[in-house]
Every structure is written in C-alpha cells, then in structure tokens.
Amino acid sequence: MSFATDLVTELERASAGQPIPRVRALHLPPPEAAASKNGEFCALELDDGALGISYVLLDDTLQRLIDSGDGGGIVGMDALELARAFAAPPAGAGEVGAGRAGARMADAAAQALRRTLGFAACNALSRTVMDRMGFAPPRATDSIGGIAPQTGDHVGMVGLFSPLLKQVTAAGARLTVIELNPDYAGHYDGYRVTLDAAELEACNKVLSTSTILLNQTVDAMLAHCRRAERIVLIGPSAGCLPDPLFARGVTVVGGSWVTDRAGFIDALRCGDSWSAFAYKFALSAADWPGLPAAR
After folding, report:
1. Cβ–Cβ < 8 Å for 103, 92
2. Strands of 23-27's sheet, edge to edge?
C-alpha cells in the first residue's frame, strides 16, 4: 500500500459517521509571487473553516490552477471525494500505442493537478479531524524538527533546504543532499548534492521536505532510510494525519498550523508572508494521541 492510499484510508476511517465538509474555496498566490517563498503554496478552504495547504510549483501546476478559475469546478465538492483523487491510479495506466503519447502527456498534467487538489483536501480534512478531536500540535522549538545534528552524524537532506544548510554543517555533521534536479549535483563547501537516493542508507539522521508527499517519491525515499535513527519531514504542506508517516519510520512531522484563517488567506492571496497567522509545529508519535477508535 502506498502512503497516499493509507492516508485516504485513515481519513475515511476518521470521518466515518461524521458530516463531510464541502469545498468552499481555493485560494491561490498571485503569479508574480511564484519567484518567492510566499508564492509556493495554495490553500483549500472547507465550509467548516478548515484549510489545507499544498505546494503548487511542481511543473506548471500554479498556472493551470489559475487558468482553471476555481480548480476545475471543485467548489461545493465533497471534500473526501476530492481527497481520494490524491490516491487515484495514474490516468491511462495500462494503455499502449504510440498514438497515445500526446494523450498520456495531457493525462499526466491533469493527474498532477488532481493530485495537488486531492492532497490539499487531505490536509484540510486532517485539520477537520484534529479540530474535532480538540487537538493542536506543539510548537516547533527550531526550524529543523529537533534533528539535533552533531559531530559524527551523517545527515541526509531530501531536497535542498538552502536556509538550513548551515544549521547542519556548523554543528560538525556530514551532510549529503538528495536532489531531483541535476543542475544542483556536485560538491560544495561543507556538503555534497547527489541524485542517488540510495545514499540515504548511510545516513543516521534524515531531514526531508514535505514535497515528497506530493510528488509520489515518499515511499521510495523512506525505503532508503531504514537505518536512520531520526527522520524529520518538514514543510508547510505537512499537515496530514501523521499515522501513515509514523508507520513508515518518520519520527517528527513539522508543518504550519493556521491560527488566523482570514489573515492567512489574505496574506496568501496577496503574496505576502503568512507567518503571523500560523505557527510552525513539530509533531512526534509521543505527542499524537492517535485517532479515536472506530465507532
């Protein structure tokens, strides 16, 4: 079973016997903000007030969402139905023939769009579930999920977190960064960037971007982290129910917890920082009470 499938299954179980909220709106950053960190995420709003954040800069996702207006008719949609799109099989799977090449490319683009919206719905429904539980995650005490790099550690970083590099290397830890973009590969001052995810197998601590949840690499990446004593997954879009991640060995999930919905939406839509309207959290298995037993 994949992470996406497990997450949707957990949401279905947690929502059983409860009213399912519907999509109220999709909030997008302005196109001109795409060059900054303030333009990297969308927020899906449900009619119970819950927000779900998702990364939108994979390929041309942001522009396609802008062109679609309301995300292609998702307003008013059952949020759980939309969430299931996150775990849907690839469009056109099993089809063959050269004449299908162009159609498969179009299908892949549409699938990426549906996955982005489905993931945002998963995060929004996760917030609905946590709010119903009366649960709020603890605030993070640092920006690297308490990974506590030390001399002698070999830290693997999945995704190049440029602002966080010095926090790892200054502690005397060895750092290997795993990237998908070949332009970044090479040796740098204090760290090395490689395209080979198998190098995570030599790391005793791993710090990963939450984008791996969306781009379908999470299962493959975590499969290389079995020897790591600490696996931290962070990013604004890490707002989903944590159970499937804890089951895969993740020790801390760090995301953004919105505290002022209206302020957050206004800032996101203007391309401004929304840090005043949300706090960064760091959630471990010890902090998480788990989902209530099925009724």
Report:
1. yes
2. 23-27, 41-46, 51-55
- Where residue 43 sits, what CATH number does that domain have? 3.30.390
Judge whether 121 and 44 are in contact, CB under 8 Å. yes
Q: Beta partners for 279?
A: 257
CA dist., res. 75 & res. 44, Å (int): 10
Residue entry with tokens 């290389």 = 224
Give the count of beta carbons closer than 10 Å to the beta carbon of residue 46: 21
DSSP code of 265? H
Beta-carbon contacts of 259 under 8 Å, excluding residues fewer than 6 positions away, are 277, 278, 279
Read off the pTM.
0.92
Q: Which helix (H) or strand (E) covers residue 231, if one does?
A: strand 230-234
Residue type at 62 in one-letter notation: L
Q: Give yes or no for residue 138 having a pLDDT over 70.
A: yes
The mean per-residue pLDDT over the stretch 141-159 comes to 95
Cα–Cα distances in angstroms (integers) from residue 152 to residues 69, 187, 229, 283, in the given order: 51, 19, 14, 26
pLDDT band at residue 109 using 50, 70 and 90 as cut-offs: confident
Quick check: helix, strand or coil at residue 148?
coil
Does residue 210 share a domain with residue 94? no
Q: How many domains does the chain have?
A: 2
Q: Which domain holds residue 112?
A: 3-133
Does residue 199 belong to any structural domain of this protein?
Answer: yes
* pLDDT score recorded for residue 295: 47
What is the domain-level CATH number for residue 200?
Answer: 3.40.50.11590
Phi, psi of 148 (to 5 degrees): 50, 65
Domain shared by 119 and 49, yes or no: yes
Beta bridge mates, 254: 234, 282
| Per-residue model confidence as pLDDT tens digits over 232-245 | 999 999 999 999 99
Residue 136 · residue 257 · CB < 8 Å:
yes
